[in-house]
Amino acid sequence: MTIRTGTSSWTDPTLIACGRFYPPGVDTPEARLRHYASQFDLVEVDSSYYRLPDAAVAWRWTQRTPPSFRFHIKAFRAFTGHTTPASALPTDIARALGSRIATGGSSRTPATSPTSPTQDTQIAPGDIPAELRDELWRRYLEAIEPLRQSGQLAAIHFQFSPRVRNDRAGRALVFETAERLDGERHAIEFRHRSWFDSPSRETATLAMLRETGAAHTIVDSPTGFDNTVPAVWATTRDDLCVVRLHGRNAAAWNRRGITASSGRFVYEYSASELIDISARVARIAALADDTHVLFNTNHEDQGMKNASAFQRALTDLARLGR
Predict the structure, then answer these.
(1) CA 58 to mean position of chain CA atoms
(2) By C-alpha distance, which of 301, 312, 311, 306 is closest to 21?
(3) What backbone phi and psi angles, to 5 degrees, belong to 247?
(4) How do residues 84-142 score in pLDDT, each as one tens digit?
(5) Which of 4, 47, 257, 276 is deepest in the core (most CB within 10 A)?
(6) What pTM did the predictor assign?
(7) Distance between CA 251 and CA 248 in Å, rounded?
């Protein structure tokens, strides 16, 4: 039984700007990752949600971290039910897609130019033709291959859009994801309450994740919104349990006008909250070989503070249990 702890970013602009986590002189991508890996043994890569990852960059990550260090890498947004700006797509795919849109595609926002890769067109998941979607998947999996080859790829994390509901289309996406990955370890995080809004749906959702081989992501977040799910403390794989903590800032969860995602997750967990969470993690960890705890409270250095305080709470809990 292993419990790893980390944060959902190590390069958030507010983290770097606050100047509290990285020591003076630690101001390059290499130095920052090396320093981060000296403090934690796990990290989530969030940049791969916004754009396809790069194999050369992934290889450099393996060289800058010890072999025991692990990466969760987020799935590209085109795979998770989100809309995707055309500018986030590879140039050739954006051009091919723009040409299709210009000749009668169904994107919600008309393309201004069939060959412009920097247009602000928002591409809905259903507007990407099968052959282009296949190519996006091929490039994504190729780009993360260095992490897999080094043994440092913990899981691919699919944070589904709130648009992905517990209906026929939503369940089909869960199965398609598993088929695309062909056995690659992955975790799914739902963002619509319909997946767990009754005991029967909770049972069915967990059964589906077990059937498809996906690790259920236990979330800690504000409650009472359509785009949140409750913390369901259950595992769906014997080898991996994922706990992802977003904080409990209900006022900011759906606030309009927030320009950076970290602004939604401004939260420092209290000592009593972390004692409760650490006890829950210790219990659930007995059901899986590896339990990975990721703090998505990425405003300034709150993620690092929360993760460090959680580690101390976990150590204190283990000491009291002896």
Answers:
(1) 16
(2) 301
(3) 85, 175
(4) 999 999 999 999 987 655 444 444 444 444 444 345 788 998 999 999 999 999 999 99
(5) 4
(6) 0.91
(7) 9
